[in-house]
Specification:
Number of helices: 3
Shape: globular
Helix content: 25-40%
Distance between the termini: 29 Å
Strand order of the largest sheet: 2-3-1-4-5
Order of helices and strands: EHEEHEEH
Strand content: 15-25%
Length: about 140
């Protein structure tokens, strides 16, 4: 896929989730709304809120993942800035796990450059194992 600047990348799918500390999925829904409304990501990504299968006896599932598909290289930087801005606005938010290509990084910070490095490490994890000063974990 390409756009005016010639920056190309294959589609990258990243899933965001909170493993703990997200009462009733409030933080997840907030992250989804923030990314969905971000004008800088609008033309270069698809954002979805996904539901986990319902537990036995439950009337429905719970939201458990924000999934984003990036279609342009500059979208990764835009995503990093957007996630960092969201984390800055919610200082008590639990660590956010981002997963792609069977690798997970944990975003515990709100610095856009550090978040960008983590997401780039996640994007390239299919080829190599990389970390970022203790802020990422591979799984």
């Amino acid at each position: 896929m390409s756009e005016r600047g010639g920056a190309r990348m294959e589609q990258v799918e990243i899933s965001f989730r909170f493993d703990e500390g997200d009462d009733e999925g409030e933080a997840l829904r907030s992250l989804y709304r923030h990314l969905y409304r971000d004008d800088s990501l609008e033309r270069m990504s698809t954002v979805e809120l996904r539901e986990a299968p319902p537990l036995e006896g439950a009337m429905g599932g719970v939201w458990d993942t924000v999934n984003i598909v990036l279609t342009h290289a500059t979208a990764l930087s835009g995503l990093a800035v957007s996630v960092a801005a969201w984390r800055q606005s919610r200082p008590s938010t639990p660590p956010l796990n981002a997963q792609s290509n069977r690798t997970t990084v944990t975003v515990q910070i709100d610095d856009p450059e550090a978040v960008r490095r983590l997401l780039e490490a996640l994007n390239s994890a299919g080829n190599t194992n990389s970390g970022d000063s203790g802020d990422s974990s591979e799984g």
